[in-house]
Every structure is written in C-alpha cells, then in structure tokens.
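Moderator note: this is an archived Q&A kept for reference. The question asked for a predicted structure of one protein chain; the sequence and the answer are reproduced below.
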Amino acid sequence: MPIDLSQSLVIGIASSALFDLTESDAVFQREGVTAYETYQEKRQHDPLEPGAAFPFIQRLLRLNDLQQGLVEVIVMSRNSPTSGLRVMESISHHELDMTRAVFRRGLDATDFMPVFNMSLFLSANRRDVENAIAAGQPAGQVLPTNKSLAESGESLRLAFDFDGVLADDASERKYQEGSLEEYFEYEKEHAGEALSPGPLEAFLVGINRIQKIEDQRSTHDRSYQRRVRVSLVTARNAPAHERAVRSLKSWGVEVDDAFFLGGVSKTGVLNTLKPHIYFDDQLRHLEDHELTTPAVHIPFGVHNVLHCDEESTDE
C-alpha cells in the first residue's frame, strides 16, 4: 500500500542548503560538471559539513518522536544519482531521519513538489527557488552564513516576516502606491478584512499542527517542555498591526511572539531571539553583516522581480 504523506509536514531541501558545498561548488565553477561529479564520487565516504539550514532541519526531524511520520524531509537535488551518494551518506553520518530523495542531474526538481505535498522547498540555488515561486509553490533561498551553527538543546525557534511571506503582497503594493500616511489610513480602514495567504502560510499551518500535538503532550505530561516557538518579526506597526493579527486568526494560524517594529532594524531583535531560521521577502533585511540568524529569502511579491542567473549544479 502506498505511503500517504498528506498528514505529514513535508519539506524539500537541496543539498546546497543542508550541507556546506563551498569546496564542491568551487570545483564545478573552476572545472565544470564532469570534474564536479568525479570529485563527489571520489569523496563519497567523506561526510559533508552542516550548512545554513542544517540546524533547522535537524531539530524539525527530531519532532518525529512526538508522532511517527509527523515530519518528512526529502532531498531535491540537481546532483546525478551517483554523485548524490555522498549526500545520502552524509545524511546517514549526521543521523538525520531522511530516506527519500529526488536526484535530477542538472535539472530543477521543483516540478515534483506537489507530488510529495510539500509545504516548503529550501535551496541555495536562486533560479530553482524563483522557478518554484513563479509556479505558485512555497520556496526560499537559503543564504550563506559564516556564523557558528552549534547549539545544544532540542528547541526549534522559527521567525517569519508577514507581508510577502505569510501574507500576500497586497498591502505592500498599496504602500508603494502612495504615502506612509495613506497606507496607514488604508490599513486602519481595512483592519477587519483579512489579507490572502502568502507562500508560507501552509508551512505555518503544519508547524501549528505540531504545536497542538505538543499542547496535548504537555496536558498529559506536565514535565514536558514545549520545543517549538514561532515569532512574527515585521516592519508593520500601529495601526497596521491589527490587520496582520486578524489575518492570522482568520486563516486559523497563530504565532507565539509578535514584533511590530515600524522601521526599526530587525537585526537586533533577531540576534536576541536567535531563531534557527528566519524568512523574509526583502534581501535588505537579510544582508546585514551583523545578522547571526540563518536567513531565507522568499522571492515573492512587489519587492522581487524574478530573474534568472546562470544555472548551477552545486547541489
């Protein structure tokens, strides 16, 4: 009988987001795809080091101890099946509970996201992420980080921007059309009118489902410490904050914390929150050299004009 993933939170991830492929990519850039594949094949038994999204994936998978099949993470890779063996051995070495993979030598695998009921795809390859977003699929580009990834504990902290991430960009488009005062007046008048969900709303639904299971566990076991915490970190402030709160409620989702910053830099808040991953649709919020949080750019909406760069096989 086929495995049913419809009740699981399914994440697709490229090896470029899960592992540090700096050296491998340098070989590809310098010598081409054949040399890259040979390089990976010769090092099949050499484990790859964790990449920017590794702590997030590792902690997410550990939540399967709450309920079997709660989380499923699937490799979606441009590697050939042969060079992909190093990726799978690295997954085993790091004891990640991942058994499924899609290897498409030199090709984008995101067309298969609906097949697996994926709520999110993460990659360092911008073109693949943009292709997924253009097709209406939830995806984000994991940005490189040179910060320390090591941290003990089982907690999983996630942070989201609102407009263009959890919600669509309708309000942001309104903001671009007029003055700040006109925007605030518009948002105040439409405070009770929910915005349409954005690309990552379904992912938050899945995270909330896990949190509800944690609530049930803590009810029966008072010693249980909830592990998942979700924060909203947005440039909205009063009076535009109300529409964000009401939109979340109308979608049936919730967050544990909300920071309505009104133009104050997000970096200080994020560095104090220390989420294991943060999602934002504006690169300018993610490229601050002082930001210590693993960051994901969601190339959706008015702030992002989709464009193509040179196709990469670094995953």
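Archived answer notes: DSSP finds eleven helices and ten strands in the chain.
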